[in-house]
Design goal:
Arc Repressor Mutant, subunit A, alpha+beta, 277 residues, 4-stranded mixed beta sheet, 3 domains
Length: 277
């Protein structure tokens, strides 16, 4: 029996961000949604909890340009379909767009029959057939993928949150590799990169010197949470950028927290920020 690929929004968002990171890791695109090199789409249908078979309709949301907006679009569309179904009606099968300023989806084109979702072959591109040897060669040339990087970092002693943080930022991960090649242990290298100010993250020698000169302080969770809430409320653009996939904005927010709290350890700040964001 066919089942939906996803049945909750957190899984959807995790999957989309992983695809975004995978595309960038492979170097096949910058995946810059603001510049149009990546877009997000979702097929959505709703069924009652006690219904096993899939609904006889689906609605496609097209051409969304940020993680934040696709989440809003799915939230809105699920509730819109529920309202229609609770009236005893069936949602019209169609393609819809998302109005960012109003936070609503809108009709673009009806798709009444299933065959309207067909994909047609490109007549100017003939079929290609590849040997298993060629496929094996290409597989051997692939870089280490994000999931494998995370697993390796966790095995080296990093927490999952620190591994996620490094892998999600290609520049930081590259610097982490540089520091470990210089002889630093995995945990030490990760802590340096996570806690260091942004203006020296490009220079491994400065990072090592900084780590020897600075000792991070500590603060209790309640104090950090209070400051994090203040920083989030005061920096709506950085919050929007983070939801749009710009991981660097997270470190801007960390910097704002550190400005208020001093040279505290970054790891708990990051975890609390991610929780509230």
């Amino acid at each position: 029996m066919l089942q939906p690929d996803f049945d909750n929004i957190p899984d959807i968002m995790e999957f989309l961000k992983e695809v975004h990171l995978l595309v960038r890791t492979l170097g096949i695109s910058t995946a810059d949604m603001e510049k149009g090199s990546m877009r997000l789409e979702a097929n959505i249908s709703v069924r009652p909890e006690n219904q096993k078979e899939l609904p006889k309709y689906k609605i496609e949301i097209k051409n969304v340009n940020s993680f934040r907006f696709i989440k809003k679009a799915i939230d809105y569309e699920v509730n819109r379909q529920i309202d229609i179904l609770e009236k005893g009606q069936t949602p019209v099968q169609e393609t819809r767009g998302f109005n960012e300023s109003k936070g609503i989806t809108f009709s673009q084109r009806l798709k009444e029959e299933a065959n309207e979702y067909r994909y047609f072959p490109e007549p100017d591109i003939p079929p290609f057939v590849f040997s298993q040897n060629q496929i094996n060669k290409w597989q051997s040339e692939l870089p280490e993928l994000p999931s494998a990087k995370r697993d390796r970092l966790v095995k080296s002693g990093l927490t999952r949150s620190k591994a996620d943080l490094l892998v999600s930022d290609i520049a930081k991960y590259t610097m982490y590799e540089t520091l470990t090649r210089k002889g630093l242990q995995s945990i030490k290298a990760a802590d340096i990169i996570i806690n260091a100010p942004g203006d020296i993250l490009h220079d491994p020698d400065k990072l090592i010197t900084w780590s020897g000169d600075k000792q991070a302080g500590s603060a209790n969770t309640a104090d950090i949470e209070a400051v994090v809430k203040t920083v989030i409320n005061a920096n709506s653009k950085a919050v929007a950028d983070y939801h749009a996939g710009k991981e660097a904005s997270l470190f801007f927010l960390v910097g704002q927290v550190k400005r208020q709290m001093g040279n505290i350890e970054v790891s708990p700040v990051l975890e609390i920020l991610r929780k509230f964001l």
